[in-house]
Amino acid sequence: MSSAPSSLDIFAARKLAGLEKRNLRRRLVATSARDAVHVEQDGAALINFCSNDYLGLTHHPEVVEAAQRAASDYGAGSGASRLVTGGHPLLFELEARLARFKGTEDGIVFGSGYLANLAITPALAGSGDLVLVDELAHACLHAGAQLSKAEVVTFRHNDLEDLRYKLAAGRSTARHAMILTDGVFSMDGDIAPLPGLLELAAEFDAWTLVDDAHGIGTVGNGRGAAHTFAPAAKAPLQMGTLSKALGSYGGYLCASRDVCELLRTRARPLVFTTSLPPASIAAALKALDLVERDPAMTARPLAHAKRFCDQAGLAEPSSPIVPVVLGSETQALDASAHLHREGFLVTAIRPPTVPRGTARLRITFSAAHELADIDRLANRVRHILDQREAAE
Ligand SMILES: *Cc1c(COP(=O)(O)O)cnc(C)c1O
Question: Could you tell me what percentage of the chain is helix, strand and coil, using 3-state DSSP and rounding each to the nearest 5?
Fold first, then answer.
């Protein structure tokens, strides 16, 4: 059994040791959720302040029941790609509902948000085109841009001057241009300057793709980052996920009929992958019902974040994502361990998820959190920040 380790295993072990030394090794810990905010890890009961289950819909009785019913009625899996076996009628219904919710002609559902972004940019841009990406946009927007074979240029975070400069420099020699940004930024919680960005896009004839994975259900009356502006600033390509505030699984794009039809025919992560299981589709449909029925519910995560920031002495947040930037990997890991001992699950976020030197706690708020727990966490975070200041 104990033969000499292969070069493959030696390679993996060395890589891991290097990451460990730089405090960049990540470990998966078994965590079971009792409800939207209470979890158990290694026997410890913790309150989860780092999940994206902003509305607690993963455990909402109506959502769970819809998923159970769909699994009993239609089976556990979907069997094949939609282009082979045809799509489940529920999937067409979900696409129509998403389009209505986002105010577009059509919508497409993908296996996940990550897959959606691997699908969209490569289906629309290629060699000879220019793709401009906000430097802090989600990893899968960057991955989709790279996969497209277009020229990829990053612009400074939320910096319209820099974007204009780069459009002016590259647009005239490119056949087509795209601009890629998060709506609500996943690690910083700030919102893209969409009206100005769309104006630039119009001026330079660039197609804008907004990834609102963290915006749907949480800002703009639950309708997303576009609706935090008046009038709403709607990009022609509105992408998002069913996996965060909607409590289910899967990704989507809302766009014009022709754009969606083109993607249905050409997007490889749609054509060559099995479609969502019926339970996930039914859960997302029910979650959309709840969000449309009760916009007041969608205001709660941000209200919780504001209360927290006020008490912890942090700047007012614009979404339920609150970054507490600490700097080094060790500082972030230590702060996370401290909160863990106090009964809070707040994972340290380290490079490459965030830029070097900006390791942080990323605290997220759910409609399901209790005010007393929010206040207790604010107190602990204020303490961490005070100690840090005293040490400087
Ligand atoms: C989580 C996330 C995704 C990926 O969505 P999944 O459905 O989890 O694959 C895409 N974009 C952003 C901004 C995200 O935060």
Answer: 45, 20, 35
